[in-house]
Structure formats: structure tokens, C-alpha cells
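Section 4.2 – Deliverable D4.2 (structural model, holo form)

The reporting period included a commitment to supply a predicted holo structure for the target in complex with 5'-O-[(L-methionyl)-sulphamoyl]adenosine. Inputs used:
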Amino acid sequence: MADTYYVTTPIYYVNDAPHIGHAYTTIAADVLARYWRSAGRDVRFLTGTDEHGIKIVKAASEKGMTPRELADSVVVHFQKLWDDLEITHDDFIRTSEPRHERRVQEIVRRLVDADQIYLGAYAGWYDEGQEEFVTESTARDNDYASAISGKPLTRYEEPSYFFRLSRWIEPLIKHIEATPGFIRPDARRNEVLSKLKMGVEDLSISRLREKLGNWGVPMPNDETHSVYVWIDALANYYSACGLPRIDDEHDAAAARYWPADVHVIGKDILWFHAVYWPCMLMALDIELPRCVFAHGWWTSEGRKMSKSLGNFISREVIGEICDEYGVDVFRYYLLRTVTFGLDGDFSRDDLRERYNGELANGLGNLLSRTVNMIGRYCDGAVPAPDADVDAVADVRRAAQALTSGADDAMGSCQFHIYLAHLQGLVAATNRFIDATKPFALAKDDTQRSRLATILYTCAEAVRIALLYLAPFMPATARRGLAQLGLDVSEEPLSVASAWGRLPAGAQTDKGAALFPRKT
Ligand code: MSP
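Output (C-alpha cells):
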């Protein structure tokens, strides 16, 4: 049986429609899922929506809706955007679904039974936008406003159940120290470690249900409380696997995928994923996810995104960009421009430059030169390579760098390295054409076999580049391969991408430019 790969996105709040930040995480996870599927692994890709908590209750009441009505009306925007962006998730979980709610209750019940939960009282500050408890000193440092949204913090004083988080901090520190890839990138891991070493208190994990309009998952041991929205939300990664077993039709349906290989998230929610979640799992004696990867944030045209500044990249703006450039270009641009893990800036000028430079002049030009020459000099049929041409070694070396480095790059979510190798192959092949001058050789009949080798090499290099491009630009890769007379391969990538798999005689078919130049 193929080995499994389980990748998740955060589940998104349904208080508002999706924007570039949501699209970014989801596209990154989709690229991982597509890559590992093409490598032959048994992949599970989960996304969904986070529908409980005070933030949703308040947003709903401002709109004159119930939380469920709001969730139902917003969830469709997420689902539509994922369809438009060619996202290939295997499951979409909503935290208001019974399959999830019942499993959250079971998880909490087990924590209660294991004496991991006790009744106390919470008195302190809360950031409703982040659904996060804020310590007195952090609150004071930020003038009692949210560090993220700037909105005033709310004061709570009420009975609450607490999770014995502090018990698990030592084991967690040990785990992080012993498992270098657990929190990525490294800078984030170090941040988490130093904050952990400053000490962590037990975690309030319930709120009075009456304060939440009776929304949320009731605590199994006390129905006057709802489970804290973050505990509820984090559990989705496990509940979507049909775990824990609770005797319903979802039981363990996808259990073989646990533990997750990677939770892809944004840097603002790292603490929840790198501390609360693993501690809960340790308290339940459940295996920990293998990696939590925290990516950076996008600004837009040099400034923080904001609706009032007019630089907000909403789903409508994403739609316009995709209409202009194509969905694939948007997907590619997000992961190519910024080192995954760092912050980045979205700029229309930069998008156009990269499009014209790397895509139109790079890969697009290489494919069209190759197919044109094969059309003109070989009646459109890929020629068999039958002469030694020294410069071929440079192209093969570039192909080798891509094919041998790809698993490592994807295994550590280093999309920029993967794409740099891919662009390296394209550049090496364009240089190869310039150096070997097939258009000049074509005029000399004695050079036929040399010409055949050169054209075969170009076609083979483009084929390999397109196979590796497919997780980022699925439709483009399909169109490009069709111009080489090929289908997307069903074989595992490592087999399909071996040098020489391109059959001589394949009938090329000059199609429309992959990337028409933009002015
Ligand atoms: N519901 C929680 C997650 C629960 S996961 C168990 C949540 N939802 S969210 O809708 O607010 O945000 C989801 C993701 O969007 C986060 O990973 C966040 O980092 C990301 N982004 C929001 N704005 C962003 C940018 N401007 N840039 C990049 N990502 C950003 O948090």
C-alpha cells in the first residue's frame, strides 16, 4: 500500500468572505497535495470552515442573522473560490457538522476522564477578533487593544473549565528540541521555544453558553458551557479522519492518514498549533502531527491590506487577476515571489514583470521555439537523438537538479527552491538553444543527426519542466504537454520524469502561446 500523506489548511472563519491570505494557504496546501499525489503517495487534503465562537456570533447579529445562517451564506464563497482556484481537497469540514461536534465532545470527555480538565474562573482580557486570551502585561503593552486588529480587548470574569496545559510544557519543549522539523521555519521554532521557556499557564477552554447565544459545542460534563472555539477548531484535523471512534458512519474512515504530515498555517496562529494542539494530543496520548509550517503575511502594493485603503485583495480582486492572467499564473506567482515562511508584498507591476520575464520569455518561449523547430525541420515529429552533443550534459544536469531536489524541497515546503530549480532547467535549455543554434544547423544536411539530438533534448527538457510545473499550474502543464503530443502521465513522477522517457516520433502540435506577453 502506498504511504500516506496528510496535509491540512486552517479552517477559516465564516464572519467574512475569503481573501488572498486564505487563498495563499490553500494554494500552498494544494500544491503539496498535487505533488505528492503525482509522486504516487496516498494523499489526504483537508480544508474547511471554523463556525463557532464569539466572533461569528457577533458578526451574525450585526447582519441580523443567526450564526448558522451566516455560516451557510459565507461557506459557499469559500467553496466557490476553491473551485475557481482548482483546489483539490479531499474533504471540507465545517465545525458545525455533527460528525465534528460529537467528536469534540468525545475528546473533551476523554480529557475530563484523564483529569486534564478542572473548573476554575477566568478573569482577564480577551481578543475577540483572534479568539484569544491575552495576559495582563500584553494587554497593558498594547493599551488594552488587539495587537492584530487594534480593536479594544474585552474583559471577562466568569467560571470556566481549564485544561492543565502547564503540565505539558516540559514534554513539549523536549519534543520540539528533539524534532527539528516539527515547527518550520526555524526562526518560528526558536520563537516558540523561547516563549515556552518563559512559562505558560493553564488554558481556559470553555465559555458560558448563554454568552455565546447558545452557539458552539456544549461541554460534555456541563452543558452550561461551550468548548472554547480554538479547542473545537483544532480538533477538526483529527475529527475529519473519523477519529476518535464514536460509533457513527464516519468512524475512522480516514484514520490511516493520522498523524498529519503538515498543518500549513499563517504565522499569527502558530501558538495555537504549536502549543495548544500538541499539548492536547499528548494529554490524549495521540501521536503528534509531523510538522506545523507557519507562512508569512501578504501586504498589498507596499501597505497592510485594508478595505478603506482600496488595496484589499478580496475574492473579487482575485477573480479579476485570474481573468487577466489565468488561475495558474496567480497560483504560481504567490508561491514563486516569496520565500515560503517570510512576509511578502503583492504588486501588480511585479506580477506583470515576472509573468513576462519568467513565464512568457522563459518557459513559454522555450516551448514555442521547440515545437516550432520540430514542426519546421522534422514535420512535427519528435526526432530520435542519435548524435553526441556535448552541451546536452548542461541541460541534463539542470534536469537532474530539479528531479533529485524536488522531494526534499516539497518535504520542507520550500516552494521557492523547487521553482528556482525548475526555472534553472528552463534557462539552461534556452541557453542550450542559443549555444547550439539548431536554426543554423537546419540549413546543412550533414548536420541532421546533431539537429535531431538538439531538438530531442529541448523537447525532453520542456516535458520534464512541465511535469514538475503541474502541481502549481495544472491546466498550463496539460496544455504544454499536449503541444508535445503527450498526456499528463499516470506514472509516478520519478518514473515519468526519467530522462529519455519522451518517445521519439511523438507528434507535436503547435498550439496557442502558453503565456501571451502582457504590456
Ligand atoms: N479559524 C482560525 C483558524 C483555525 S485552524 C484550526 C483562523 N481563521 S482565519 O480565517 O482568520 O485565518 C486563516 C488564515 O488566513 C490564517 O492562517 C492567517 O494567517 C491567514 N491570513 C489572514 N490574512 C493574511 C494575510 N494578509 N496574508 C497571509 N495570510 C493571512 O485564524
